[in-house]
Specification:
Elements (H helix, E strand, L loop, with lengths): L1 E2 L3 E7 L1 H5 L11 E7 L13 H5 L14 E8 L5 E14 L9 H12 L15 H5 L2 E12 L4 H17 L5 H11 L1 E2 L7 E3 L7 E3 L13 H9 L1 H12 L3 E6 L2 H14 L8 E3 L16 E6 L12 E5 L4 E3 L13 H15 L23 H19 L7 E5 L5 E4 L1 H8 L5 H7 L2 H10 L3 E3 L2 H18 L3 H16 L2 H6 L25 H14 L13 E3 L20 H15 L3 H6 L1 H7 L3 H13 L6 E3 L1 H17 L4 H13 L2 E6 L2 E4 L13 H28 L18 H11 L5 H30 L47 H23 L3 H31 L24 E5 L14 E7 L3 E8 L9 E6 L3 E7 L2 E3 L4 E3 L2 E6 L3 E7 L5 H15 L32 H15 L9 H8 L4 H5 L3 H7 L16 H7 L3 H9 L9 E4 L15 E4 L4 H7 L10 E5 L5 E4 L30 H12 L14 H10 L12 H6 L38 E5 L14 E5 L5 H15 L5 H4 L4 H8 L1 H20 ...
Parallel strand pairs: 10-12, 10-13, 11-12, 19-20, 34-37, 35-36, 35-37
Antiparallel strand pairs: 1-7, 2-3, 2-6, 4-5, 5-6, 8-9, 13-14, 15-16, 17-18, 20-21, 22-23, 22-30, 23-24, 24-25, 26-29, 27-28, 29-30, 31-32, 33-34, 38-39, 39-40, 41-42, 41-47, 42-43, 43-44, 45-46, 46-47
Helix pairs in contact: 5-6, 6-18, 7-8, 7-9, 7-11, 10-11, 11-15, 11-16, 15-16, 19-21, 19-22, 22-23, 22-24, 23-24, 25-27, 25-28, 27-28, 27-29, 28-29, 36-46, 39-59, 41-43, 44-45, 44-48, 44-59, 45-46, 45-48, 48-49, 59-60
């Protein structure tokens, strides 16, 4: 039983304090306690001070009007956190104001009264006075008085009735003693506890009252407060508010009603049930205490709305406006309010809507179901309870299984329970739930665990709900209608708990005053109560109530709390999609292999296990499997077992994230001190030394939770042991034994002990408590040792200077407890970390950490202070001993590598190849190549550096492929870029390596390695330096080609083959010095740049085409030619020169004098004086002398004179040379005008050129008319465009004449002819009715566009065609992009989303190959079909010229498609004519410090040959491997062939003389016998008397090196590795390949790889040339892996197999095997009867149509390019959306959508990228039928018209400076023009503009001035709707004519114009209207 009320207090207005002058600015409170009863405090309930503040929350103030009595309840909390409810009834009494000051002090009094009586906080209140002057003007005022009941019971309605009765007795002056009423309330009315009966009482004023205590003390009572809260705020706001309260945020309620504040705060706290709010709780906060809102602790408070303006600076308080229904969450609130987990949030909202809005579900139904009207409508109180039931269910679902995570650490003398938060979150899979995480960390949850954790206690409704929640949810899942039923049932329980029904059944009688009684004028003051009478009544009541209780409360008895749903154990594995049973089985098998010491088998499963450990369940399985193999306290493993176990433990810890890491770490913790390995005698290394790096070990909360879990297990084992001893009388080790299922849980044991506790003797209890305390103490010692093991690093004794300094500290946490301490980890970025890393400081820090842990767990577990002190004393000694024991372990562990590394495999080396550095152990890393070899990479091995190659050799890390050998290699000379990389992750080893190297080679190889940790940075740097030195040696003779013995790094000087000028460098240096002296320069002032200027006579145009890179490259090669020293040659030397292969080829072609075809083979360059980069022997016309040829050299770039290099059977020549040095260099290169008077106006400088070219042209075939019966329709079509006619004297229609005739674009059709020219009529061919704009030429010169102004003179029947070609500036970036596409260093799909095909396309490599094939195809057509000669004079004549010349000869001459012929072609066109191999491959020693890029000129040529070979597989004697072999060794420097820039350098080095000697011996094999070399002997000494490989070779010849073609010839004699068995040997076929990009393929040389042996092009080390043994492969199943095996070797073609069978058969029969070539040549080709068919014109036309079209386009584009800059206009483009498919006029591809541009003048359509490339051929007129041509081109029928149109529109120019020469204001396009004022669209200002009306283009354009060419704007007349006169406006000028204004309205806007006068305006209007009509 308890008192109804503890105190009755009368509080009145303190007038004395108001009058006190010292109170100015002092306390704002003006209330005082008038009387209180009882006057002495109750012993169990002290009186609460400061009650005056809460009686008037807005402050005490006088009022000049009487206020109605008010009632509210404030809640106060004492120091013990007990709530006291203060029921306050407030009314007003009359007081008289007496003036105590003189008139002089009136002002001061007024100020004083304002401060005292009207505080700022009260001026806005209900009872506050409006102005301070009102106090002085009213003699009668009203002061507040309050009657207050203070109670520990929340009985607001009863308090209201009691105080109302007292007030009624007072106000009505009834005959009841107030003392009696007060005394009865305080002393006579006793209230039973929760569950007791109803109490009926009277306080002595004739009243009848009842009070029903709740049935449960734990269930809160709310009345209808919760329902009110939802009505005011809404569902979502209340939910957010609940989440805010549960996560300990600050909540502030605002309302004008105190009752709303109290009810809402009570309702919000009630929604938290089963949690209790334990923070600051003040439903009504007085105004003087508003500064309390700034407290840092969470709170729930309420204030009057009038105080809202004073609390604007609260940045972390959630403000709830109850009256307005608004919840305001500050934006700066951190962390933000988390919401409920996703499913619960939506479910709760749905359930709340179901209760609050029951008809919502059927609101939209057309025919809602008619429900029976309930007999009794639900009251607000019933709805209130159903709402609370929803939240009870919510928390029951949220905390499902919480009892499984309760940890019992003490049972006696009282239970101590903690909660394993990490285990709960992990088991519920709610680690990511921020809401639940913060709830578990809150103080509410700590209280919840303390109150509801004990398993033996009284239960309430929530406990019942929690235990049955799972069954309810299952039934509701099957029947959704049960949800509402269950909620209503739970709501009924809550409703009955408050006893509302019993309360209603009793008729209460309560006194209340009549209405308006408070306004009585003559109302006496509240009388003073006699305290003596009240005390007597109180004492009497206490005496009467002292008898024993008349009733007994039977409810809420103690019982065992049901466990509810159980969570799975920590190491239980639940089925999951991500871990199949097979994966977990593989994990178990691997662990069993480890402990069975089957390490090889375990390593094979290692990658799969590592992937499996990515999942949580697999990590738990691993821990359980490890635990199953533990027997005893120590498990000694061997090194490999230990390494794998530690690796698995690290992987499990590394992949665990968040709180889930606790479970795995706790499971691995005991095993870290069990698994160990023996390092040496007496030195044992435990597993904890290898897993110390994980942050979990530095987390104190982890250690606490793990400690408490272990203690619970020990406590449980302790009581189970007692029970077993009592029941079975035998001992059992419960810790290590398997726990049977029937064993009780720790909670069940605790419940049993608590149930027995009253009957257990005190001695027994003390014994049990002592046992528990000892268990905690021993476990604390054990954990202290574990913490020492894992916190002290292994290298603690290492000197601080030799290792980095770790910042090792624990974050400070002053209130460390298991409930409120967060996850405080060791910080790595702390200012309090170690300054010096030595063992002493580490020991001290670890000791402090362990001491804090001991204080925390031992204090919570109730360990005695003596034991705690012993623990603190023990820790430093344990730390010190452990640190000492680690030193030998660290030293021994360093000697024992963790991983048994594989043995280094030595690579196979070539003869003469030696290792120059020690190998570096490393891993070959995967790159971005899309192949099938990624299972073989990464590979572990070593990187080797020889004097020839960089080699990686190793084996795959994948254990399933570890028996394979991985080789990647490339020549050092092909190294493009060396890059240092870092932080490389190895997934197979789960290891990150810090040092790596990436090497990229021009042989299309990429080696990306990560160095093993044992490789030091110094070794890596040394390797890089040696590699760089080997890449750019001091001299060319240090390359591997010249090093048969020795290594490159010993600095051996090369052997000289000549005493003087033995090297090009020495000769160049001396020549330069001698030339400078003769020129008059001093030696110091002479520079290479000056020599260039003296030597190069080129014009500006010629110099523009030379790139900066080329100038840098050529700097060391320029010499003053006039001062070159003549070489002393004997007749024998010259004879040997004339026996060279290219000279023999010229003889074959008929260039010698004996052939009498106008040529001779000249010795003019034998001393290389004519041209230093040309061959010694050249071809010259008979008419030109050697002296004239030498004099010609100055006219051409690099003195490279155009020389004939090949001759067709029809007499057409192929001429190659350098670019001319000026526009008049060729003599006849001038404009092809109709007049002949100035035909030679520009050739006066070099008249000898005319003679030379006339001599060349005279050797060419004469132009003869074509016989139609001799040629197919192909030639008819060509002649129609190229202009074959019956006579040669017809002049072409020139541009100048065409400009004089406007009708020069008439298109010929039918029998019409075009008009033009001087004669006025062009005579056309009557058969095809086509005009002849050009005639056939005998010579076409293909040259640079920079020479486009100079054209061949028609008198010589020559023409100049400027062409586009991929020069070196374009091929370099294309090659770089191709390298990155074929050898990406990373996965491109993940990095930038680009596929391999896309990257190849963007490189433009295939486009350049296509361009080369197209240009060479044009050369082939001109020579073969038209019988015209072609001269190539592109750039310096050594790059693109060599490409085009070689490709053209390959297509025209079948001889060059044989093995011997291709050698001659390369030696002639590339080696003899001076292609700069050394420069282009960046092999010059002078390039070591330059950044010159690799130029793939020769590679592009080989790529074109590959394309030809693919399209014509029967035309070539050699195969694709031959081309790949050449491509590889052109950059490898293994052979001398491609090491020098020209024949001169080979001569200086002595190589040319040696080759001449050999050539004189084997010339007969190559040319004389016509292929006899194939049938000759295999005795190499007969052909090569000085064999390189022979031991008898003299020493000087070892420096000469090998020739690649000699090597190929020897290999060809041995094996058919280079031979194409499909070769047909057709001697007459001319190749015409498809050249569009779609017909090309990417060469496999760029992408193929053979990891088994490396690049297959070094035959000695790759065994590619070995004979195939069929006996080994027959009948066997072979596995061939693309990218790993050599496909040609492993899967040979049928010819190779048959030849091998023949050889094997001969061997078996005892015959001497013949060579394969002899066998092959002896085969008889079966005679095939030719199929008789007539070759039709159509067949030939179809065969060559595509090739002819591209040829004509090149010629037309070249011709048009010569005219476009003079006679064409630029286009003016605008964006244009294409709604129908349209072809681009430039690239002929499709235009579609808003992607195009259209010319506003001629209407041509282009892509955006094509606009810059388009030709300036705008005609200013719309194109007719899409065919636009130049003014001097007439169209003919057939395909030539479209070709001309395409050529005219696709001609490109890069000369942007021509654009400004043209203007768009052509006279005939101006219909009307003049000045007008125009009004701006935005700023509305008037500006004068020059307007042009164009009726042709249908435009109105305006310019700044009349001279401008670019318009400022254009108005399309098609958009104009009307032109009308307008009203005058202000334009800022004087004398404005009002009739000069007119408007032009378009569909977009209205333009305002003003003319100077009305006449001009009218004229403009008429002109515009005329155009519109």
């Amino acid at each position: 039983m308890s008192r109804l009320a503890d105190y009755f207090v009368i509080v009145g207005y303190d007038s004395d304090k108001e009058k006190t002058a010292s109170n100015v600015g002092g306390q704002p409170t003006c209330g005082k306690i008038v009387q209180r009863f009882p006057e002495k405090d109750w012993p169990d309930t002290p009186f609460i001070e400061g009650i005056e503040w809460f009686c008037q929350p807005l402050g005490w103030s006088l009022s000049y009007e009487k206020q109605e009595p008010k009632f509210f309840v404030s809640v106060l909390t004492d120091i013990d956190a007990n709530k006291h409810y203060c029921a306050c009834l407030s009314f007003h009494e009359t007081v008289a104001i007496t003036q105590t000051r003189s008139v002089d002090d009136e002002d001061e009094t007024i100020g004083s009264s304002r401060l005292l009586g009207a505080t700022p906080s009260s001026t806005d209140g209900i009872t506050a006075t409006s102005t301070p002057a009102s106090i002085t003007h009213h003699s009668v005022m009203y002061a507040p008085k309050c009657l207050v009941l203070i109670s520990r019971l929340d009985c607001a309605e009863t308090f209201k009735n009691c105080l109302g009765t007292i007030y009624t007795v007072y106000i009505e002056n009834l005959a009841y003693g107030l003392e009696t009423l007060i005394g009865n309330i305080l002393g006579c009315i006793q209230v039973p506890p929760a569950g007791g009966p109803q109490v009926r009482f009277s306080i002595g004023a004739g009243d009848k009252q009842s009070l029903q205590p709740p049935q449960s003390s734990s269930l809160p009572t709310t009345g209808s407060g919760v329902h009110f809260l939802f009505k005011q705020l809404g569902i979502k706001n209340v939910l957010i508010l609940l989440c805010a309260v549960m996560t300990e945020n600050k909540i502030l309620f605002l309302s004008k009603c105190y009752w709303h504040l109290t009810d809402s705060c009570r309702a919000l706290v009630a929604l938290m049930y089963p949690f209790r709010y334990t923070h600051v709780y003040i439903p009504i906060l007085p105004a003087p205490l508003t500064e309390v809102l700034s407290t840092p602790t969470p709170f729930i408070m309420g204030i009057h709305s009038s105080l809202q303006t004073e609390i604007t600076d609260l940045l972390d308080v959630i403000v709830v406006d109850l009256d307005g229904g608004l919840v305001t969450i500050p934006e700066s609130l951190t962390p933000p309010v988390p919401i409920l987990p996703s499913p619960l949030w939506e479910q709760t909202q749905d359930l709340l809507s179901m209760i609050l809005f029951p008809n919502l579900a059927q609101a939209d139904l057309a025919f809602p179901t008619l429900e029976r009207p309930s007999a009794i409508a639900k009251t607000d109180a019933q709805i209130d309870k159903e709402l609370r039931a929803i939240f009870m269910r919510l928390f029951a679902q949220l905390l499902q299984g919480y009892r499984s995570c309760l940890t019992i650490i003490r049972i006696h003398p009282k239970p101590v329970i903690t909660f394993h938060k990490a285990g709960f979150l992990g088991a519920r899979d709610m680690i990511e739930s921020e809401f639940l995480f913060r709830v578990l960390d809150s103080m509410f949850f700590t209280t919840f665990v303390n109150e509801r954790g004990p398993p033996w206690r009284s239960s309430d409704a929530w406990d019942e709900l929690y235990s049955s929640m799972n069954e309810l949810l299952k039934s509701e899942a099957q029947n959704r209608n049960l949800i509402l039923t269950h909620i209503q049932e739970l709501g009924r329980v809550l409703y009955e708990n408050e006893g509302t029904l019993a309360h209603i059944n009793y008729a209460q009688k309560v006194l209340r005053p009549p209405e308006g009684a408070f306004q009585r004028i003559h109302q006496p003051a509240f009388p003073r109560i006699s305290s003596e009478k009240v005390e007597l009544i109180i004492q009497e009541g206490i005496r009467k109530n002292g008898v024993p209780q008349r009733f007994h409360v039977t409810r809420n008895q103690h019982r065992i709390i049901p466990m509810g749903p159980r969570l799975p154990e920590a190491l239980d594995v639940r089925p999951n999609v991500q871990n199949s049973a097979r994966r977990l089985e593989v994990l178990r098998i691997c662990v069993s292999y480890i402990f069975e010491n089957r390490i090889t088998d375990a390593r094979k499963l290692l990658p799969a296990v590592m992937r499996t450990l990515m999942h949580r369940d697999a990590r738990l399985i691993l821990c359980r499997e490890f635990f199953g193999y533990v027997h005893g306290n120590k498990a000694v493993l061997d090194h490999q077992q230990f390494e794998l176990v530690v690796r698995f433990m690290n992987k499990a810890l590394q992949k665990s994230s968040g709180i889930d890491e606790y479970t795995v770490a706790a499971a691995l913790l005991p095993m870290s001190t069990i698994f160990c390995r023996k390092l040496s005698t007496g030195v044992v290394q435990f597993a904890y030394t290898e897993i110390q790096d994980h942050a979990i070990w530095k987390n104190l909360q982890f250690w606490e939770s793990t400690f408490f879990q272990d203690v619970q297990g020990q406590i449980k084992a302790l009581y189970l042991l007692h029970r077993r001893q009592n029941e079975h009388q035998k001992e059992a080790n419960c810790v290590l034994d398997e726990v049977p299922l029937e064993e009780p849980t720790a909670l069940e044991i605790t419940a049993e002990q608590l149930r027995k506790s009253p009957s257990i003797e005190e001695e027994k209890k003390a014994e049990l408590a002592k046992s528990e305390e000892s268990t905690l103490y021993s476990q604390a010692i054990h954990f202290a040792n574990r913490m020492v093991s894992l916190l002290v690093p292994l290298d603690v004794n290492v000197d601080a200077a030799s290792k980095p300094k770790p910042a090792f500290r624990l974050e400070e946490n002053h209130s460390v407890s298991n409930s409120i301490m967060g996850s405080h980890s060791l910080s790595e970025h702390s200012d309090e970390g170690f300054e010096e890393n030595n063992a002493l400081e580490i020991g001290v820090t670890v000791g402090k950490t362990i001491s804090r842990f001991i204080d925390c767990v031992c204090t919570e577990g109730g360990v005695t202070s003596e034991h705690i002190r012993n623990l603190h004393d023990m820790v430093p000694g344990v730390v010190h001993m452990h640190i000492e024991s680690l030193e030998p372990v660290y030293l021994e562990a360093k000697r024992h590598p963790h991983v048994q590394k594989p043995k280094i495999q030595t690579p196979c080396l070539l003869p003469g190849e030696d290792l120059v550095t020690d190998h570096l152990r490393c891993f070959l890393m995967p790159d971005g190549r899309e192949d099938e070899t990624q299972c073989l990479i990464p590979a572990e091995g070593a990187l080797f550096l020889t004097n020839y190659r960089v080699i990686f050799k190793g084996s795959p890390c994948d254990p399933f492929f570890c028996e394979q050998v991985i080789v990647r290699t490339f020549p050092i000379a092909s190294l493009l870029k060396e890059k240092k990389i870092s932080v490389l992750y190895l997934a197979h080893l789960d290891q990150t390596l810090t040092e790596g190297l990436q090497l990229r080679s021009s042989s299309f190889q990429l080696i990306k390695v990560a160095f093993d940790p044992e490789v030091t940075p110094e070794q890596i740097e040394s390797f890089r330096k040696i590699l760089s030195k080997a890449r750019h040696p001091f001299d060319e003779f240090e390359y591997f080609a010249f090093q048969s013995y020795g290594t490159m790094l010993q600095g051996v000087a090369p052997l000289k083959t000549k005493e003087k000028y033995s090297t090009l460098k020495g000769f160049a240096k001396k020549t330069l010095l001698r030339g400078a002296k003769k020129a008059g320069f001093k030696q110091k002032q002479q520079t290479k740049r000056k020599l260039v200027s003296d030597y190069d006579y080129g014009s500006a145009d010629a110099q523009e085409t030379q790139s900066i890179d080329d100038e840098l490259e050529d700097g060391d090669e320029f010499e003053t030619q006039n001062n070159a020293m003549p070489r002393l040659l004997t007749t024998k030397d010259v004879e040997r020169m004339r026996e060279r292969s290219y000279v023999q080829d010229w003889k074959r072609l008929g260039f010698d004098a004996e052939s009498q075809r106008g040529f001779r083979i000249s010795n003019a360059n034998t001393s290389y004086a004519t041209c230093r980069s040309y061959p010694a022997i050249i071809v010259a016309p008979v008419q030109c002398s050697d002296a004239a040829i030498m004099h010609l050299g100055r006219c051409f770039k690099g003195q490279r004179i155009p020389l004939p290099t090949w001759r067709h059977a029809n007499g057409a020549l192929l001429i190659r040379g350098g670019q001319p040095n000026s526009k008049s260099v060729i003599g006849m290169l001038k404009n092809t005008t109709g007049s002949t008077t100035n035909a030679h106006h520009d050739v006066t400088h070099y008249p000898e050129q005319d003679k030379y070219f006339l001599a060349l042209i005279n050797t060419m075939p004469k132009l003869t008319p074509l016989a139609l019966n001799q040629y197919s329709g192909m030639n008819l079509s060509m002649s129609s465009l190229m202009g074959h006619s019956s006579s040669d004297d017809r002049q072409p229609l020139t541009p100048e004449l065409s400009r004089k005739h406007k009708n020069n674009l008439d298109i010929s059709d039918g029998n019409k002819s075009s008009q033009g020219g001087k004669s006025g009529t062009m005579k056309g061919n009557p058969k095809n009715s086509s005009a002849h704009p050009f005639r056939k030429m005998r010579l076409y010169a293909l040259g640079e566009k920079s020479q486009a102004k100079s054209n061949m003179n028609v008198d010589f029947c020559a023409d100049f065609i400027p062409v586009d070609y991929p020069d070196i500036r374009q091929s370099r970036p294309a090659f770089k992009k191709l390298i990155r596409a074929c050898m990406p260093s990373h996965n491109t799909n993940e990095a930038d989303g680009q596929s391999f095909a896309k990257m190849v396309e963007q490189s433009d490599w295939l486009q350049q190959i296509s361009s080369l094939m197209q240009l060479s195809g044009a050369v082939v057509d001109l020579i073969d079909l038209q019988e015209s000669s072609v001269m190539l004079s592109l750039e310096d004549g050594s790059d693109v010229t060599a490409q085009l010349s070689s490709i053209a000869q390959l297509c025209l001459d079948p001889y060059y498609r044989s093995l011997d012929g291709f050698r001659v072609l390369v030696e002639k066109e590339w080696l003899a004519f001076g292609h700069r191999f050394a420069h282009r491959s960046n092999l010059k020693p002078s390039h070591a410090n330059t950044n010159i890029a690799f130029a793939p000129t020769f590679l592009q040529f080989l790529d074109v040959v590959h394309q030809l070979q693919r399209q014509f597989p029967m035309a070539f004697e050699f195969n694709d491997f031959y081309l790949r072999f050449l491509a590889y060794h052109s950059v490898s420097c293994r052979f001398r062939t491609f090491l020098f820039d020209c024949e001169l350098e080979r001569s200086d080095s002595g190589i040319a003389a040696m080759e001449d000697k050999r050539g004189s011996l084997n010339a007969k094999h190559m040319f004389g016998a016509g292929g006899m070399a194939a049938n000759g002997s295999d005795d190499e000494c007969s052909v090569y008397p000085l064999d390189i490989r022979s031991q008898r070779t003299p020493a000087p010849l070892n420096r000469i090196g090998h020739s690649i073609f000699d090597y190929i010839e020897r290999q060809h004699n041995k094996t058919p590795i280079f031979y194409n068995f499909l070769y047909s040997g057709d001697k007459s076929m001319t190749l015409r390949p498809q050249n569009n990009v779609a017909a090309l393929d990417l060469w496999c040389y760029y992408t193929n790889e053979e990891l088994a042996q490396g690049a297959p092009y070094d035959l000695e080390v790759t065994t590619v040339d070995d004979e195939i043994d069929l006996s080994e492969t027959k009948g066997k199943r072979m596995v061939i892996t693309a990218g790993y095996d050599n496909m040609e070797k492993c899967n040979p073609n049928a010819y190779v197999c048959l030849l091998s069978e023949v050889k094997q058969a001969e061997t078996e029969r005892g015959h001497l095997p013949q060579k394969w070539l002899q066998v092959w040549n002896s085969l008889e080709v079966p005679q095939l009867e030719p199929v008789a068919r007539n070759t039709s014109l159509g067949n030939i036309f179809v065969q060559t149509h595509q090739h002819k079209r591209s040829t004509l386009e090149i010629i037309m584009k070249g011709r048009l390019a010569g005219y476009q800059d003079k006679y064409f206009h630029p286009h003016r483009f605008e964006k244009h959306p294409y709604t129908t498919p349209t072809n681009c006029n430039h690239c002929t591809k499709l235009l579609w959508g808003p992607v195009g541009y259209r010319c506003m003048d001629c209407g041509n359509s282009y892509h955006e990228k094509c606009t810059e490339l388009s030709m300036k051929n705008c005609t200013k007129y719309k194109a007719i039928d899409g065919a636009v041509g130049p003014p001097n081109v007439n169209m003919s029928q057939g395909d030539t018209a479209s070709i001309a149109s395409s050529a005219a529109t696709t001609a490109r120019t890069s000369s942007h400076h021509f654009y400004n020469q043209f203007s768009s204001n052509v006279a005939e396009n101006r219909t009307h023009e003049g000045h007008l004022y125009k009004r701006g669209a935005l700023l509305k200002g008037w500006k004068q503009r020059w307007f042009v009306l164009d009726s042709i283009k249908h435009q109105l354009r305006y310019y700044d001035t009349s001279e401008d060419t670019a318009p400022k704007g254009i108005i399309e007349l098609a958009e104009v709707q009307s032109v009308t006169a307008a009203q005058p406006a202000q334009i800022g000028a004087k004398g404005v004519d009002e009739k000069g204004f007119f408007d032009l309205k378009t569909s977009k806007r209205i333009y305002n114009f003003y003319a100077i006068n009305a006449n001009l305006a009218q004229e403009w209007i008429e002109k515009l209207q005329a155009c519109l009509q």
